[in-house]
């Protein structure tokens, strides 16, 4: 299964290096990388656009960007990022406790809120290097982000249509490369 996970990592995280390069000099703690990973997931795979920092609940006129804004990680104990998707505003808030990072995603319109608690010391191996060096379990972290943070709040479809991650959820009978007895017709 080594090649399957490598293929997923290669395709899914395409674009991470570019984002990381833009924030590399700002990253000074492991929680920064976990926030950057949520940002990457939102902007690349869910079509969100970042419209700045703070917790202002008014919808901005600007379109937003895939980049993390200046000063996104200046506070030592919290993060607050604003995103727009389909003219709807979302807040991504992170709070650093002693050994955990609590991340909340809120849809300002519906008031739906989700949260996830992650442990930077456990999940982030380094603050410099490629994605597999930084976060060896990045794929698992992303899966948790989707299930615990995004799915409860955001009901839209992700932009990702690659077969690497959808293969495992497809019914086995629909696999065109399946070897075995032919299916019985109805």
UniProtKB/TrEMBL annotation:
Residues 156-186 are annotated as: Disordered. Keywords: Proteasome. InterPro entries: PI31-like, PI31_Prot_N. GO terms for molecular function: endopeptidase inhibitor activity; proteasome binding. One of its GO terms (cellular component) is proteasome complex. Residues 24-160 form the PI31 proteasome regulator N-terminal domain. GO terms for biological process: proteasome-mediated ubiquitin-dependent protein catabolic process. Coiled coil: none annotated. Pfam families: PI31_Prot_N. Belongs to the proteasome inhibitor PI31 family. This is Proteasome inhibitor PI31 subunit.
